[in-house]
Here is the input.
Amino acid sequence: MVTENVQDSAPTYEQLVALCTAIHSIGPTLDLEEVLNRIVEAAVGLAEAERGFILWEPQDGAAIRACANLTPEAIDESALELARRVAQAETGQVSDSHIALPLWSPEEATCALYAEGAFSAADAKLLEAFAQHAAVAIQNAWAFYEVGIAEAEFASMIAHDLRLPTTNVRGYSDLLLKEMVGPLSDQQKAFLSIIHANTYYMETLTYNLSDIAKIDHRRMPLKPIQVSLEASVNEVLDKLRSKIEEKAQTLELDLPALPDVFADKARLEQVLRVLLENAHLYTPSEGKITVAAEQQGASLRLTVADTGIGVSPEDRQDHLFTKFFRADHPVVQEHKGGGNNLYIAKCLAELMGGEMGAESEPDKGSTFWFTLPVATPDE
Here is the structure.
């Protein structure tokens, strides 16, 4: 429950879109401190606040204070005291100059979000809705941090629990969008399209989490067969070609007559899709994407080169193929993602007997490559 003294008003369509964006921004990590920082930054941006912080106080007195547009030392004591009261009472407080909302915390801690600015009742409603999603993100991060659940087991649990409700939401939104239960207004269609797109994104995250669990538990089922690499490339490109054409990107193929590879066809196409989609997403309009293949002894090597944003040397060396990594580049942040596609693609290539790597230079493009064994008569 929130006490408020500002005039009530409903959020606009643009504000609801901003809410969806803010919710998405806090999802891709299980690190507790990063979750708190993402939450306060998203909240301040959502409500167009001047500044904000999250108070996290365990009983031992050590506080984690995630801040936006200020430092922990600059936090006013009266604001801290208000955040403590809100967290302990589990009752939010809203005025035209500040919003304080309780967030989920374990029994031995208190947690609250505080923001300062000029707020309307619509801002308060948006932050209340955002706080509900933020609480789930904090709870998941705390479970991962405190309970000591193995990362793969945690991913498997989350994937299993999310799959059924996500599928149901997408199915019902499909029915509504097709107007099978009655006509819709333009605004209703717009909202349902957002729901549908986000549930599709959640399904993708769910499958990725499931893949991570299988990989990390060494239980990834593979059915290797003799596969034409060229045919697989063309099959994936058929699904991406319209998007590539929309950005007026040049697609160049250099696929000479090559022997087949020995691989799981579905997983091979998953690897190809990751590399080709990344090249498309992170290459500007009228840029160039080149797909080439060559035989190197008992292996085939396929490369996907682009003229896109590139990867910094630090990220390429330390983070590129790790779990939950997304570069800080603004173009990367524009697109949804959990930061696991390249990790999964590299693991799949290795499980199929190959390797994966990348060369890149910021603002000049990237070249991703992977190898797979040539199929032999015995195979």
Remarks:
- The chain has a mean pLDDT of 87.
- The chain has three domains: 2-147, 151-216, 224-373.
- The first helix runs from residue 13 to 25.
